[in-house]
Amino acid sequence: MARGRCHAIAPIPITGTLDIFVPDTLTIAVAALALASCAYLVLAIERVLRFRSQLRRPLASGPMPPVTVMKPLCGEEPGLAENLRSFCRQDYATFQIVCGVRDKADPSIAVVDRIKAEFPDVDIVLVTDARTLGVNLKVANLAHMLDAARYDILVISDSDMRVGPDYLKSVAAPFVSDKVGAATCLYAASARLRGGGVATQLGAMFINDWFLPSALIPMLFGKLSYCFGATMAVRRDVLEKIGGFVALADHIADDYLLGRRVVEQGLDIAFVPYLVENIANEPNIKTLFAHELRWARTIRCVQPVGYGFSFITDSVPLALIAAIVVYMATSSMAPALALLGGALLLRFGLHLAVHATVGHKGCLTPWLIPLRDLFSVTVRMSSFFGNKVVWRGQVMTVGPVNGKSDA
Fold first, then answer.
1. CA–CA separation, 400 vs 243, rounded Å?
2. Confidence tier at 14 by pLDDT (50, 70, 90)
3. For burial by CB atoms within 10 Å, which of 43, 60, 254, 366 has the most?
């Protein structure tokens, strides 16, 4: 039997001065992922710019149904007074604002009293009730506020949201159709508060550069089946059919579940082309990490498949890894730099497209892109190691939404 000999694989000479190894399967796979991630950026830019054109559509005319705005409050967060003022300045015929707190000593009560004095012509009601219905204290707050709601179109909005005078006209317009059971809209973050440091700017970038595009893309492939927490508008009778707020009390992803329950009733969720302003406020990196980890683990539980593929949105880190692998395989800087440079250009393009869309709500901070993307990867990796989340001081455990509980 002849003995075999082992031979080293020699590089294939291309130019006489540059040697390139034949790429192996790993190199091809990593490069393909990086290219797919760049394709995601192209699609994200297109979706954001298309959404920008939708924001300019004229508002529907004609009679609008009366609306109750529900504002669950907890503490006097920065910008709260101006946030509430923006809801009082609505160009809308008939509306009511119901604010709710759990603690009679909550400092937001003084803010509500001040706003009521500033706007005597606006129907503003304050409800205080400390009873707990489940782990989601915000939902318990909403349940207690419902008795004070005068009208049958309920618009639920978080306390850190700020809107323009055309907000209610935009949100209420879809309810002229009986097929619509709920309506929702997106939000963009603003770091306009004084004293907002790097943590606040990074938090705003996450909402603007990651959440906004990733929320727009799925609508290409079907009807909306969930709501966004910035605005959840629902008919009262539809809410009653799904079990009321009590049915959401043990779920941290109440916006997701509310939308899903509405769709199960055979009704549509209207996507309103309106952008609410979220007043970002992250005191430090630690609180930002806890905030985004809660979002990540919640999304991982309610949409496990989609979240599993969400790494494709980490374009710059993927391109950096691909560039290193390609260089090691080819000994050439050209394809490696092409991958990394292309991803950086597209990522910067998305940042500019978002800024052009959200206007003053956005933060043009391209120099923070590398740090923002590295932070996102860290949060995403951490989200797979545990199910604990912290929400307004509460430590909760999230799990799959299976009809019983996700918190």
1. 20
2. very low
3. 254
Rounded Cα distance between 99 and 141, Å, is 9
pLDDT score of 23: 54
- Reported as a single tens digit per residue, the pLDDT across 40-70 is 999 999 999 999 998 867 666 678 899 999 9
Domain boundaries, given as residue ranges, for the chain: 19-46+307-397, 52-285
Query: How crowded is residue 88: how many other Cβ atoms within 10 Å of its Cβ?
Result: 18
Please list, in sequence order, all residues whose beta carbon lies within 8 angstroms of the beta carbon of residue 82, skipping any fewer than 6 positions away. 162
Round the CA-based radius of gyration of the chain to a whole number and report it.
Answer: 24
Q: What is the pLDDT of residues 225-259, one digit of tens each?
A: 999 988 999 999 999 999 999 999 888 888 999 99
For the question of whether the overall pTM of this predicted structure is more than 0.90, the answer is: no
SS3 396: strand
User: What count of other Cβ atoms lies within 10 Å of the Cβ of residue 223?
Assistant: 10
DSSP string, 253-307: -HHHHHHHHHHHTT-EEEEEEEEEEEE---SSHHHHHHHHHHHHHHHHHHSHHHH
- Length of the chain, please? 407
User: Where on the phi/psi map is residue 277: left (φ > 0), alpha (ψ -120 to 50), or beta?
Assistant: beta
* 162 beta partners: 277
What CATH code would you report for 52-285?
3.90.550.10
